[in-house]
């Protein structure tokens, strides 16, 4: 029989560590060929475009974060544009429609978001020019009506200030914001402050 164990595992750990074989030397052939940057980039692009459109700028940034060489990224992005998988103008239209509908954003706020997405200023101007001013006003009215319900216990001057601030944060011009706030307060039987 072996020696009786006295509760000290140190000897076992040392024996285990000494018995462990050294790691095998790196075998260049066994490691396989270097990753094909183009195949990796193509997969990244297709994964990113699945389910949602993205701007060229966003995709280029994603490829850069994944260390895809710039010349490979540029070539693939150009090819994806040629076949219509990347279309900044269509992306901008979709973004504007979605953000105006779901977030209630005005043209100014949408322009800032498009700039952050890497959309060219000219493309953004063209797309934003298509936004109907009546639709933008209706979005402002809907926002004010919704917020006004939570301001029942607030005096009229405070309500007007908060509503105008809400519209300003959403990017609405001051003239439109004050006109909409004044109209909606009057519609609710409240008085907008003058001055």
Automatic annotation (TrEMBL):
Which residues are in the RecX third three-helical domain? 135-181
Q: Which GO terms describe its cellular component?
A: cytoplasm
The residue ranges of the RecX first three-helical domain are 41-79
- The primary site where this protein sits is cytoplasm
Give the region (Disordered) as residue ranges: 1-36
- Write out the GO biological process terms: regulation of DNA repair
Keywords from UniProt, A to Z, are: Cytoplasm
Specify the superkingdom.
Answer: Bacteria
Q: Where in the cell is it found?
A: Cytoplasm
Domain RecX second three-helical per the UniProt entry, residue ranges: 87-128
Q: Which PANTHER family match?
A: REGULATORY PROTEIN RECX FAMILY PROTEIN
Describe the task this protein carries out: Modulates RecA activity.
As for family, the record states:
Belongs to the RecX family.
Q: Could you identify this protein by its name? A: Regulatory protein RecX
What is the organism field in this record? Nocardioides silvaticus
Q: Which gene encodes it?
A: recX
């Amino acid at each position: 029989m072996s020696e009786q164990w006295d509760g000290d595992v140190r000897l076992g750990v040392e024996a285990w560590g000494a018995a462990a074989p050294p790691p095998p030397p790196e075998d260049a052939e066994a490691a396989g060929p270097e990753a094909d940057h183009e195949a990796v980039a193509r997969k990244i692009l297709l994964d990113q475009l699945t389910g949602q459109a993205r701007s060229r700028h966003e995709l280029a940034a994603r490829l850069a974060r994944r260390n895809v060489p710039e010349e490979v990224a540029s070539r693939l992005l150009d090819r994806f544009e040629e076949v219509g998988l990347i279309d900044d103008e269509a992306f901008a239209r979709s973004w504007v429609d979605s953000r105006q509908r779901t977030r209630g954003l005005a043209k100014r706020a949408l322009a800032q978001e498009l700039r952050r997405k890497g959309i060219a200023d000219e493309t953004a101007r063209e797309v934003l020019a298509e936004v109907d001013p009546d639709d933008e006003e209706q979005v402002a009215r809907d926002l004010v009506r919704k917020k006004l319900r939570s301001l029942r216990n607030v005096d009229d001057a405070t309500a007007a200030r908060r509503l105008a601030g809400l519209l300003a944060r959403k990017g609405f011009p001051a003239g439109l914001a004050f006109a909409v706030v004044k109209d909606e307060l009057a519609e609710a039987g409240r008085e907008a402050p003058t001055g």
